[in-house]
Each structure stands twice: as C-alpha cells, then as structure tokens.
Amino acid sequence: MRDQVRINQQPSLPLQPITNGSRTTRIRIRVLSMRALLILLFALGFFLTAFPTGRALTRSALLLPALLTASESGPSSWSSEPIKHSQLTARSQGGTMNLDVYAPDSPTPMVSRVRSGILVIAGVGDNRQEPQLVNLLESLAHTGIVVMSLTTPALSAYTLSLNNVDSTVQAFKILGHLPRMEGKQIGIISISGGVGLACLAAADPRIRSAVSYVVAFGGYFNVKSLLRTFGRRAQALDGKVVRFQPIDIPVQVLANTTGQYLAPDERSTLVNAFADGAPPLTTDEVSSLSPGAQALYQLLAGTAPNDADANIARLPAPMQAQFDKLSPSSVLGQVQAPLFLMHDRDDPSLPVTETRTFAAELARLHHPYKYVELHIFDHVRVRSDLSSTQLLDDGFHLFDLLTTILSLNS
After folding, report:
1. pLDDT at position 44
2. What is the dotted CATH code of the domain comprising 52-222+327-407?
3. Going by C-beta distance under 8 Å and a sequence separation of 6 or more, which residues neighbour residue 189?
4. Which of 39, 59, 104, 298 has its CA 20 to 30 A from that of 22?
5. Is 152 strand, coil or helix?
6. d(CA 353, CA 221)
7. Are 217 and 192 in contact (CB under 8 A)?
8. What is the pTM of this model?
9. Where do the structural domains in the chain lie, given as residue ranges?
C-alpha cells in the first residue's frame, strides 16, 4: 500500500520550455503569410486596374447594382470617381443637337492614359430628366467613362429622321475630341428608337472604323417587318402565333415619321388619330383617305390584320424607300463594330422578334455579336415587381454582357 501511494505521488514530467528557435519559426511563418497575402492583394488590385478585363470586371461590379435597382445609391456612387455634368449644343443636318456630358472630374488615370467614351442615344422624346437614364449616365461616369447623351429636335418630337444619322455622327466626333479623349475607345449605347440611328451611324464611313461597339437595347431591325407585326397585332414566337398589342408611343412615332409622305390634310388626320386619347377614325373618315393613307391607318390601328402584307404593298413608294433607309437591316454588312443586343422578352412596345431576327442575321453574316433576352425590364425600364430569382438570373446574364462590353471600353 505504501509502495502504491509512493507511485501515485510521483511528480509529473516538467513541460519543455519553448525555445527561441521555435518562436522564431512561428513568427517567420506569420510574416511570410502576411507578405503572401499582401502580394496577392496587390496582384489582384493591379489586375483590376491595369488590365482591360480587370477594369471591365470592376466597372461591371460597380454598375450592376445601380442598374438593377435603378438607383445610384450603391457601390458606383461611394467607391468611385467624382463626376461633373455639362451641357453643349452643336449644329447638324438634323438641327441643333443637345449634348449632355457626364465625365469624371479627376485627372486621367495613370494606368489608362486615354479616357474611354460612350455615346448614348436614348430613343424618342426628350429623356434628359428621365431618372433611370440619368442614373445610367452618372453610374457610367462614376466608373471613369466619359458619357455623352444625344437629343435632337426630331427625337424630341417623337419622330425618326434620316437627318439624325448626321447628328449621331457629329456627336460621336465631338465626344472623341473632348479633353483627354483623343477619339479613342468610343462605343454607342442605343435604346429603343435610337437603335436604328446607332446602326446607321456605325455604318457611316466618317466614323465606321472608330466605333468600338454598338449596344442595341429594345430596338427594331426592319421598319417594314415592325409595321407588319403592328398590322397583324401578332408575332411568331417559338413556333406559335402570339398576340401583340403595341403601346401607343411606337404607333405615334410611326405616324409622325410617315406623315411627310402624305398630303397635308391626310397627314394631320393620321397624326391626330393616334394622339393620346384620340378616338379611332370612323368608317367614312377612313374611306375618304387615299389608298396609301388608308393602308397606313389600317396597319397602325390593327383594324385589318389579315391584310397586313397587302397594305404594306399599297404604301407610297417613297414611304417604303424611307422605311428601308431607316432600318438597321439595310446597312448591317457595312458595320464593322461588334454588336450587343438586348431585349425584354415580353416587350409591349417593340416586339422581341425584331431583335431575334437581328441576331439571326448577324449569325448568318458571321458578324461578332452577343444577344441576351431579359425579364427584368418593361421595354427598357427596370420593373419594380421583381423576384430574387429574376434578379439573380438576369443579373448574371447582364453582368456577363456588361463585362464583355466594358472590356472594349477599358
């Protein structure tokens, strides 16, 4: 028993003291780990600022929240360059242009010696105070891009005019000669009714080789096919004929655009017939019109869906020629820049089939392009009733498209 107690009370072995060598090794490992982390962060920062792909990723990450929320209260506003807004006017064949410039208010970055630029054609109407457009322009400028928005008298009057092609070309050239721009790396973003002007300008020999890319969002490809869809009040989607009821604005635009090829009294009758709140023409009023004016009215009003093709053939020859000249389809082979197409799948303004046909023709020509159909827009405005699934799905596709586009602007 005594021996057992003696054994149990034997002192435990003393702990080995930490030697200076082991302590030094641990410190050295920590220092090396910190250095590796700093090198990794530096390399990542250098990639995101020095390389086009990195800058494009950074810009896309800053832009996407602002675009999805239709608000600038996100990363693009609190982690970006200060900006300034200035307004210019200039003459063109389309009359006096109003040019709104949103530009970084800081020296040109050392890594990228030349600022990149984007010309924005925001469709018909005077959209300079439109909140979602202003948000887009400011958000782009916050990422270091010089942005110019074009407004013309014809666009403000909800009219498409070939003279505005010259306006677009002149605006593009003015943007290229702004301070610190030097005419390099300039793309065009076109929205809705501005898509045709952007494509026609991108095919113009004066700037064709200088256009970095064209974004066509919610636009049209061929005016005749657009008018045919309006006349039929239907579009062919995925092998099915689907009813299409256009909202008032595109119908009014076509009425305003084609009126110049009619007699003054008929022009007034048709334009007034599609004004806001106007009642449809009576049978007697339609009968009093010339055959060409009758055909145009039936196409725009959708009152003879089975006669859409015949009515297009009855339109005055100068009007049909104008349709061809206003269509991107007429100049697609002359455009050198890559095209990026986007369209709202359920667009109530301009049918998605227009951009699908656009994409199919680009594929046939082996022209560089990307096409994305989205569900988060109502025509070209961000919807407010979005689910998280829609935001994630379309957000991913939009981020990928933004990165590709902005890599050409970096």
Report:
1. 37
2. 3.40.50.1820
3. 118, 119, 120, 121, 198, 215, 217
4. 39
5. coil
6. 9
7. yes
8. 0.82
9. 52-222+327-407, 224-323
In angstroms, rounded to a whole number, what is the distance separating the alpha carbons of residues 327 and 225?
10
> CB of 140 within 8 A of CB of 63?
yes
What mean pLDDT is predicted for residues 152-163?
97
CB 369 within 8 A of CB 363: yes
Tally of residues, the chain: 410
Ranges 54-68, 137-151, 316-330, most confident: 316-330
CA quadruple 218, 221, 227, 230: dihedral sign: negative
Of 72-86, 236-250, 323-337, the one with minimum mean pLDDT is 72-86
CA torsion through residues 391, 397, 403, 409, sign:
negative
Token pair 């095919």 is at which residue? 203
Asked if residue 176 lies in contact with residue 185, where contact means CB atoms within 8 angstroms, the answer is no
Identify the helix (H) or strand (E) that includes residue 403: helix 388-407
Q: 130 is written with which tokens?
A: 């439109």
Structure tokens at 306: 């089975």
- For residue 151, what are the CA distances in angstroms to 42, 92, 97, 146, 318? 43, 12, 6, 17, 26
What confidence tier does 48 reach under pLDDT thresholds 50, 70, 90? very low
> What b/e sequence results for 148-181 when a residue is b if at least 16 CB atoms lie within 10 Å of its CB, and e otherwise?
bbbbbbbbeebbbbeebbbbbbbbbbbbbebeeb
Please state the separation of Cα 385 from the chain's center in Å.
21
Write down the pLDDT at residue 51. Answer: 43
Pairing relationship of beta strands 369-374 and 381-382 according to DSSP bridges? unpaired
CA distance 132 to 354: 24
CB-based contacts of 276: which residues, under 8 Å, 6+ apart? 248
Q: What is the distance between the alpha carbons of residues 405 and 213, in angstroms, rounded to a whole number?
A: 8
Cα(151)–Cα(159) distance, integer angstroms = 12
Q: Which residues face 341 on adjacent strands?
A: 216, 371
Rounded CA separation 144/58 (Å): 11
Nearest partner of 66 among 150, 142, 145, 144, judged by Cα:
142
